Structures are given as structure tokens and as C-alpha cells.
Amino acid sequence: MTIQVGDKVPSCTLKTMGEKGPEDISTDAIFGGKKVVLFAVPGAFTPGCSMTHLPGFVVNADKIKAMGVDTIVCMAVNDAFVMGAWGDAQNASELLMLADGNGELTGALGLELDGSGFGLGSRSQRFALVAEDGVISHLHIEAGAGVDVSSAESIMAVL
Fold first, then answer.
1. How far is CA 116 from CA 2, 55, 69, 85, 102, in A?
2. Which residues partner with 139 through β-bridges?
3. Which of 49, 77, 97, 113 is an active site residue?
4. Whether 150 contacts 39, CB under 8 Å
5. Going residue by residue through the chain (159 aa), what tens digit of pLDDT does each one get?
6. ∠133-139-1 over CA atoms, to 5°?
């Protein structure tokens, strides 16, 4: 079942790239007591994700944070090494690049995407959410290909 507005972000442990390698980070630490924008992409370094989705949040990070957002999270079902390298390649230093390598959070949110037809296995649907103290206040799931309702501009419009 897909998570809904008003639901709490599920508790789980994910990975982020630290100075000494992958580090555990819990959703409770990410979302607890904060206003967070999380957007998810089907895969790091893929065309739509690299040319449109992530760059929109990188370019608008200061504006988004000025609207009261504490943390902007980019998440994909990739490992922390890939997410770290992608963040570096995209100059995403203002964002938390979050690796959901086993799809644990993606599955708990009910937002899996079967990419096996493209050789990608199980991935995340493209979506964005806003959560305050872990409770989802806005949820924007893309109905098909492309970046529209989950774009930085769409999220800025609801902040």
C-alpha cells in the first residue's frame, strides 16, 4: 500500500557517503523535528535524473531552504558509493544524497518500480514529498515518465 499524506515516514536505516565511507543514517535522524523535502529517482546517473530532476533541486537549494526546509534529500535505490559520486558530479553539496540500496524505505513507502525490463531490477518510482517531524504533508508521485509533479518547482509551489 502506498504511503499517504498524514502518514509518518517509516523507521529504517539507510546509507550516506561519509568522509571514511558509507555511514548508517536512520529516517528518525533525518526527519525527526525537521522540515524535510525528499525526492526519489529511479537511478543515479540516468538521463532524466541527471539532466532534470536532481539539477532542479541543486539550483534551487538555497531558495528551498529559505522557505523553512531544514534538509533536502535525494534518494535512489543505489549504493552509497554511487550516490556519493553522483552528488559530487552534480555539485549537490547542499543535499543529503541517500542510498536506499536494498529498497527498504522505498518498499515501506509502497513506491517500488519494477525496472527489470530495462535491466534495473527493483527501483523507486519518481516522487517527492514534504514531511514535518516525520509526518508527510505533501506527496507528489509521477504518473509516468518525465519530471513534472516531483520537480523542485512543483515542490516550491507547496512550501
1. 20, 26, 35, 24, 15
2. 129
3. 49
4. yes
5. 799 999 999 999 999 999 999 999 999 999 999 999 999 999 899 877 888 899 999 999 999 999 999 999 999 999 999 999 999 999 999 999 999 999 999 999 999 987 777 767 678 999 999 999 999 999 999 998 889 999 999 999 999
6. 95
Amino acid at 101: G
Active-site annotation holds for 49: yes
Alpha carbon distances (Å) from 142 to 66, 71, 146: 25, 22, 8
Cell of 78: 543505489
pTM for the model stands at 0.94
The full 3-state SS of the chain, as one line of letters, equals CCCCCCCECCCCEEEEEECCEEEEEEHHHHHCCCEEEEEEECCCCCHHHHHHHHHHHHHCHHHHHHCCCCEEEEEECCCHHHHHHHHHHCCCCCCEEEECCCCHHHHHHCCEEECHHHCCCEEECCEEEEEECCEEEEEEECCCCCCCCCCHHHHHHHC
